[in-house]
Specification:
homodimer, alpha/beta, Rossmann fold, 3 domains, 6-stranded parallel sheet, 43% helix, globular
Amino acid sequence: MKILELARDVLKISRKTSLDEFVEKVRLIVEEVKKRGDSALIEFTEKFDGVKLKELEVRDEEIDRAYELVEDDLIDSIELAKENIEKFHSITAPQELFIDFDWAVLGKKYLPIESAGVYVPGGRASYPSTALMACVPAKIAGVDRVVVCTPPARDGSVNPLTLVACDIAGVDEMFKVGGAQAIAALAYGTETIKPVLKIVGPGNVYVTAAKILVSKDVAIDMPAGPSEILIIADSSADPKFIALDCLAQLEHDPMAVAVVLSTSRKLIDEVVTEVKKYGEPDNLYLAEVSSIEEAMEISNSFAPEHLEMVFEGAEEAISLVKNAGSVFIGELSGVAFGDYISGTNHILPTAGYAKMLSGLSVETFMKSITFQQINERGVSMLGEKAVKIAKAEGLEFHAKSIEERIRAIKGR
Amino acid sequence: MKILELARDVLKISRKTSLDEFVEKVRLIVEEVKKRGDSALIEFTEKFDGVKLKELEVRDEEIDRAYELVEDDLIDSIELAKENIEKFHSITAPQELFIDFDWAVLGKKYLPIESAGVYVPGGRASYPSTALMACVPAKIAGVDRVVVCTPPARDGSVNPLTLVACDIAGVDEMFKVGGAQAIAALAYGTETIKPVLKIVGPGNVYVTAAKILVSKDVAIDMPAGPSEILIIADSSADPKFIALDCLAQLEHDPMAVAVVLSTSRKLIDEVVTEVKKYGEPDNLYLAEVSSIEEAMEISNSFAPEHLEMVFEGAEEAISLVKNAGSVFIGELSGVAFGDYISGTNHILPTAGYAKMLSGLSVETFMKSITFQQINERGVSMLGEKAVKIAKAEGLEFHAKSIEERIRAIKGR
């Protein structure tokens, strides 16, 4: 925990791990899986997860059994979360559009990527919420094959809640494989795991490094780093909520970062007092700012994964947000709501990538295609000018392909 | 030119160049630019472009002069192209959406990436159309700094038409730098060229390799490969148009590929006859198919950059398109219209990447941010269920941050 003298010093907080070293480390794993398929997967799983698997795929019986192991209340919670994710993601899904111009019909359609791999972290902890966040949008997009890979526990099982979440999300295939070997399998395929066209989902540095390594051959979502929150608050904010939201962010990962910028020194002190009830976290930074505008400016440079705006006039200040992954407005909007249940996605750009990348959404699993049907009017209105440019670029057949069409319609 | 016995053999055409070797070759260039900035740029430009530049930036006088050098008709053509690109791209730009749910307001906004670098190929040839295709959407998105890099000619000049196109597109900064060194400068910055957040635009293998190399630090659009067309035609199609559209595609690059699939053997023979008037291109493949459906299926597996559908019922067959960069319907819709003037984009995924990537668009220069404002009803409706999931994931502070909010609203 550190109170910064100069608020802009939050921009000096180191957040980006160099992955170069890890890319080299996982290269061999990826090559082996590419070469030897399932048998490499089984070896690496024994080495890294401590279990020698007979089968890589999760069987239907395991899913049935998982439903028995998870209490009903929790299944209900997962179902409600799924429902809300579905609502928000469906409404904000991209829409096709065909426009009748004078000279042509031009259109743009969004179509699903036919197969997608989702990495769900696992092992000791379980992340059913991440399974929902990645798989529900994929299914809304219309992806045919949604394939989940998640590392098994030492007894060869997968956390039953993760299995239930995947099943509720409509996942098509699930495999007990984690780490870089899972990414390699999804990218290049093995006897058991057919390759996919795009790989998404957060993982540790090895998973992220492997995603970067295979990204020349398949699409990936984004490099995932440690989680972050930046909270902008004035004296009206409740220090207890702020303290807990910081602690919630920090419990994800020892590398996670929490920042509080406040126009009120008193609030900062109160947040510190609240936090101290639970300990002295390393990566919590607090600073006083002279105005909300200053705080917004610093936040835009920081480009936090999560931004909380807890001050009077926060709603109107939305227009000041330039860079952030997901934004939470007002004291009731704790990040944890977005993490689990409100319907927005929690797979978000970290480490400043929110400046140029988006959180996961239905678009993540679609590509757009443009269409055009030029009519005679189009040929005569646009033809000559296109020929001009084609000739200037020295592309004679481009010019000729249009000239012939101009000639053809003149004859009609 | 080859007539294939088996139409599905078009899927065996090799289209993907391995970039690994080139990535290694450009690594040194990128490192040098990172280390030595402008002086490295000047050295590499002397080495690769054969000109020792005194200044890297294009001066206003050069742009003024360019307008004098280009004939008015051509300037008009560029302006019309810009206007149509602007129309189509504005209408299909992503829209923000805020939804009032019972329990919260949830929203999604699209905001511009603050700076973007555009690589415009140059040297011997000039590509004003590519400058428009990349820069106009960037400006519609609202990118503050649109920075163009393009290689100079041996006399240190940049093609005047490219300068005019950049100026008409509203480009903010232009530099005479090409190749991997341009990508390095855009990614990491030098004394003269400030770094950008995203780099787009097609280039040769060195440019593409450099983009892949820097993609761990900045966003890039997609790996660009040689151009491709796949034409599906029945006996109603005009063989002359088909022949010319193939030849147009092939004149881009010795590695470009053209494929014709037809239900009519007669048409194939006629196309061959037409093509032979101009020569015997290597990479033109023709094959008879038993049905339009078979052709569509092969096309979807091939995922061509450009798809022409020239057969009866083509309009209705749009729904059969699963993978393609841009689609042209009917005999008048030559690809060259989309290349230059109709308004759709010509920077498109090649080598099968249309299965998972989109052509360049306004979205290319934006990122989305989600917003939420949870209300009291939301806290009471969703709170307990979110707490359940948080606890199941072992994230105690996540649970507590919600529990405290439930407690707070109960007290109201």
